[in-house]
Amino acid sequence: MLDRSLPVVADCSSARPVHAVRPAGLGALLAALPQAQADWVRGAGFAAQALELLLLPGGDGVAGAVLGLGADHSPFAFGDLANKLPSAGAWRIEPGDFDPAGATLGFLLGAYRYDRLKRAPRAPATLAVSGQERALSEAAATWMVRDLVNTPSNLLGPSELAAAAVELALHYGATPFRIEGDALTASYPTVAAVGRGSERAPVVAGFTWRGSAAGPASPLVSLCGKGVCFDSGGYDLKPAASMLRMKKDMAGAATVLGIARILMQADLPIRLAVRLGCVENSLSGHAMRPLDVVRTRRGLTVEIGNTDAEGRLVLCDLLAEASDEHPDLLLDCATLTGAARVAVGPDLPVLFATDEDWAARLLQAGRDRDDPMWRLPLWDGYDSWLDSRVADLNNVSSKPFAGAVVAALFMRRFLAPNTPWAHLDIYAWNDADRSGRPEGGEAQAIRAVCSAIESKMIVMQGDRNSPVT
Question: Options 3.40.630.10, 1.10.3720.10, 3.40.980.10, 3.40.50.1820; which CATH number does 138-465 get?
Answer without folding.
Answer: 3.40.630.10
